[in-house]
Specification:
Blueprint lengths: L7 E7 L7 H12 L3 E7 L5 H10 L4 E4 L13 E2 L1 H6 L4 E5 L4 E5 L1 H12 L8 E5 L3 H12 L4 E6 L2 H11 L6 E5 L13 E5 L17 H4 L2 E6 L8 H8 L3 E3 L2 H16 L5 H15 L4 E5 L6 H12 L2 E4 H9 L3 H8 L1 H18 L3 E4 L8 H10 E7 L2 H8 L13 H19 L2 E4 L5 H11 L4
Parallel strand pairs: 1-2, 1-3, 4-6, 7-8, 7-10, 8-9, 10-11, 11-12, 13-15, 13-16, 14-15, 16-17
Antiparallel strand pairs: 3-5, 5-6
Helix pairs in contact: 1-9, 1-10, 4-5, 4-9, 9-10, 10-15, 11-18, 12-14, 13-14, 14-15, 16-17
The structure holds NADP nicotinamide-adenine-dinucleotide phosphate (NAP).
Length: about 450
Amino acid sequence: MNISGKTSVIGLIGNPVEHTLSPVIHNGLGERLNIPSVYVPFLVEKEGLSAAVKGAYALHIKGLNVTVPHKNDVMDSLVEIDEAAAAIGAVNTLVRCEEKGGYKGYNTDMSGLRRQMKEDGISLKGETVVILGAGGAAKAVAYMCLIEGVAKIYLLNRTVEKAGEIAGKLDPEGKVIVPMALADYGKLLEGLEKWIVFQATSIGLAPHIDQVVIEDGSFYDRVKIGVDLIYNPAETKFMKLVAAHGGKAFNALKMLLYQGIIAYELWHDMTVPEDVAAEIYTELRRQVYPKDNIVLIGYMGSGKTTFGKALAKHFDMDFLDTDGYIERQAGKKISEIFAEEGEEAFRKLETEALTGLRDSLQHTVVATGGGMPLRPENARLLREIGRVCYLTAAPQVIYERVKEDGNRPLLKGEDPYGTICRMMKQREPMYRRAADVAVDANCDSIEEMLERLIPAVGVE
Ligand code: NAP
């Protein structure tokens, strides 16, 4: 990161702040959008909150996120509060308001979840919704459901008074929200309708991954869509129960992504392009769900299979070749897939294969097909699977390695060496972009290649 006099500072205030994922979002956005900004977490104690907000404004800090325990108390230090944030009673984003000489507060948790719902294709209009929990997150969910025009909200909480408070504030006439004790969920089963359920309690969060507030299968029979606000583990027990009873289950890592993206958009008065948001989501997934696989990418003949097998043996890891995997899945040769169904169908199979492998592969060295990382979607999936290592080699070296191989259709043309040069030049930037690290593979000795690869792949 190149910090200059033009770099603006954005950040987070809270306590604690050590484990925040927000720098991944905001510094990642600055880097990809070429915006000179740096995002820093600031530890702020309760007593110092008002001084911190004033000081930040004086320091021309462009914007701040606010996390626990300050989301409510920070409102006293602001010059303006957005309508939704005021209704929810929680602010997580501060934006400079020069006319009034202070910060305006927003709640992008709510708008982040709203954007996630849109992206996941979930419409709330006219639906019956069940919200489990009545803490800060549940209140934001209830507000979102109201502005999306749901027909009914059953708000279930262990401490029923808290559900009552939320209902009283957001729906004073009691037309939509029905506060209930969690233990009374059985009453909901008397009707016949199916619901969209938001799991907004803190139960099920790693490491307590076997916990859920309702175990009863007859409850889950009625859930058509279940959204767990918890995103770690990736599939909570609540989500497993929803899926096992035929519903669609989602976690809310995208809510975290979009609350950050919306804050960044407010601070910089711009719209983050979808492909950049997708890249940041990949980086978040890598942080939250780290994998110990090694992915080798590069042009044909760069040594992905040969060196990959040696690397797997060295680290006592499994080895997987994606082309072989796809052939086994499809029950036919790649050349047959190309001939019978076309390249687009093959690329689709690649993406499907990677999506499955992303969730299942562990401790494996993966050698990829040469064209696989050229699709941005595949490149993102590969980064989620593991650390991506690009094997680079000169066209002449590649040509010498593959010229006798009769299975390479490319080499059947008139000028195979020229084709290799042209394709490699075209693919080079995409390989570099997809990779965490590049390793010079202009070398035929396995021992020497291992000496180069071992420090690069980051296995401890
Ligand atoms: P909170 O204000 O502390 O509320 C916690 C909720 O969990 C309350 O409803 C509480 O019920 C309930 N609860 C706790 N222990 C329980 C138990 N043993 N049995 C039944 N219910 C229990 O927390 P929050 O800020 O609303 O956050 C709730 C969850 O949402 C957290 O896991 C958080 O990680 C997640 N979240 C995710 C995002 C995201 O970006 N994806 C954003 C915000 C929050 P009582 O009122 O009875 O104590």
